[in-house]
Design a protein that fits this description.
Low-confidence stretches: none
Number of helices: 11
CATH topology: UDP-N-acetylmuramoyl-L-alanine:D-glutamate ligase
CATH architecture: 3-Layer(aba) Sandwich
Helix content: 25-40%
Mean pLDDT: 95
Strand content: 15-25%
Largest sheet: 9 strands, mixed
CATH class: Alpha Beta
Structural class: alpha/beta
Strand order of the largest sheet: 5-4-1-8-9-10-11-12-13
Length: about 300
């Protein structure tokens, strides 16, 4: 039985190749909670994933990927009436541009009554994100139900708001995120999330607001500046390690997976965040969301150095 279960939306990635041919794309894998699950598995945790996939080649590719990575797929359902979601990444003078084909995807058709309850009840930690809540009303309800199941079973609940303005109206995003914060053990927002939710409020004010909303613990992820961890009584700023960063895609997801893996391994939140900082930094030293996710031996070498 997996110790960690992540719930959400996987997406097949087509990333524009960095060649002279603008029509060439490299196929990869994405989806924030899928990235998180793979990151945790690579770092030694027993992980399962809960989602819906299309009965198509892309869905089969995801199942093969998770099985190669040691991620339990017993919570993955196949939907014969909807496709697996896809996104494209193009590169230009302004940087990355993402184009999504996810409307009506199999993952967006998740429903609370179809959740793998046995898998969720057996987990020690359940993770989801705001993206899964934004893709459809039924997927949003599924996240709330999964968290209810986890809390009732005594599990840790981790939540990454991962707010995407293009996916839903800002008022709805704020309302749903803050309602979900009240359900989580650890809230894991990025600085970008903090700006969307709280404007230019100082870091401490953001963390205080999330505690008041109900989060027992908060980790504010600050990219190259590291993170700030608060368990409600102790607060600590943890600096990032310097790395030769080339692509930050998936770094926040890697942090989430590493943080969860270390909590399950017995670390306190501050030690888990220090470890996750290093793992997330290493994830920026290669291209793509999945390929550069580090192994435990990579993180241990970096910590030793």
């Amino acid at each position: 039985m997996p110790d960690i279960v992540a719930l959400g939306e996987p997406l097949i990635e087509f990333n524009q190749a960095r060649t002279e041919d603008p029509s060439a794309y490299l196929q990869g894998f994405g989806g924030d909670t899928s990235n998180m699950a793979i990151a945790a598995a690579r770092l030694g945790a027993r992980v399962g994933y809960a989602t819906r996939l299309g009965s198509d080649a892309f869905g089969r590719m995801f199942v093969d990927l998770w099985r190669r990575e040691g991620v339990d797929t017993s919570g993955v359902a196949i939907d014969a009436e909807a496709p697996t979601g896809v996104y494209f990444v193009t590169h230009g003078p302004a940087g990355h541009e993402f184009s999504y084909l996810r409307a009506g995807s199999a993952a967006s058709r998740m429903r609370p009554d179809q959740l793998p309850e046995t898998l969720l009840r057996g987990a020690r930690l359940v993770h989801a994100s705001g993206i899964s809540q934004a893709i459809s009303a039924s997927a949003c309800d599924s996240v709330f139900e999964a968290f209810d199941i986890a809390r009732n079973a005594g599990a840790i609940v981790t939540y990454d708001p991962n707010v995407r303005r293009k996916l839903w109206p800002l008022a709805r995003a704020k309302a749903i995120v803050m309602a979900t914060v009240a359900q989580c053990t650890w809230c894991l927002p990025s600085e970008d999330d903090a700006v969307i939710l709280f404007g230019d409020a100082p870091c401490d004010d953001v963390i205080d607001a999330l505690h008041r909303a109900g989060a027992r613990g908060v980790v504010l992820k600050r990219g190259a500046k590291g993170c700030v961890v608060s368990d409600g009584s102790r607060r600590e700023e943890i600096p990032a390690r310097r790395v030769a960063s080339v692509d930050a895609t998936g770094a926040g997801d890697c942090f989430d997976g590493a943080f969860a893996a270390r909590l399950i391994a017995g670390d306190d939140a501050f030690a888990a965040a220090r470890y996750a900082n290093v793992a997330a930094g290493l994830a920026t030293t290669g291209y793509g969301a999945v390929a550069p996710l580090p192994r435990a031996s990579d993180v241990e070498r970096a910590l030793a150095a």
